[in-house]
Amino acid sequence: GPGKGKKLNEASRQQRFNTSIRDFEFWLSEAETLLAMKDQARDLASAGNLLKKHQLLEREMLAREDALKDLNTLAEDLLSSGTFNVDQIVKKKDNVNKRFLNVQELAAAHHEKLKEAYALFQFFQDLDDEESWIEEKLIRVSSQDYGRDLQGVQNLLKKHKRLEGELVAHEPAIQNVLDMAEKLKDKAAVGQEEIQLRLAQFVEHWEKLKELAKARGLKLEESLEYLQFMQ
Q1: At a CB cut-off of 8 Å and minimum separation 6, what does 118 contact?
Q2: Cα end-to-end distance, the chain, whole Å
Q3: Three-state DSSP state, 210
Q4: Does an H or E element contain 131, and which?
Q5: Confidence label for 190 from pLDDT (cuts 50, 70 and 90)
Q6: Rounded Cα gap, residues 192 and 186, in angstroms
Q7: Residue-wise DSSP of 18-48
Q8: Measuring CA to CA, how many Å separate 103 from each of 31, 40, 97, 100?
Q9: Is the pTM for the entire model greater than 0.90?
Q10: CA atoms of 197 and 131, how far apart (whole Å)
């Protein structure tokens, strides 16, 4: 009779529901395992890789939202057709929804941690780059060569003016490192002491560079005036 078709229809829906649930639970287990692994970034490159890997997971999670919607609709259909195993369906449906929500929350928290680690390594790399830039300029402004004749002093002064231009042009890069440190202050729990220590050193070197550059400029100007006067 007509009841038979309805029964078949329901059986196939039950089967579709069970297959979907199994598939979704399998994916959830994989995601949960992935999020439970405490991969630590060791440097900027590994921090970047972990972030990329995580973004893949987040994309998958987005794609899974539709599958979950379908699953919930399928469950509602089964429940409204007065199926025989209501409790089991409700339990499975609720469990999957709860786990999915949990995975989303874990992933969001993990994402923040990864972004912090990346920012920290980026900061230290930028700091290293700036430090070597300053080192190299310090050698140049520490030169004891103030020229021996008018031509020599004029050449040195021209070179020095170029260097002073470089320092001014470099201010924003220095400021950028200081701003990053300020941001990390509120964020990164890790490396706080190291950040403050390195930063103090960095600022000290930068101030020293500006001071020595100024002093060298004045010395060269004096030399020039003296030699011009002597002519």
Answers
A1: 41, 44, 47, 48, 51
A2: 123
A3: helix
A4: helix 86-141
A5: low
A6: 10
A7: HHHHHHHHHHHHHHHHHHH--PPP-SHHHHH
A8: 7, 19, 10, 5
A9: no
A10: 13
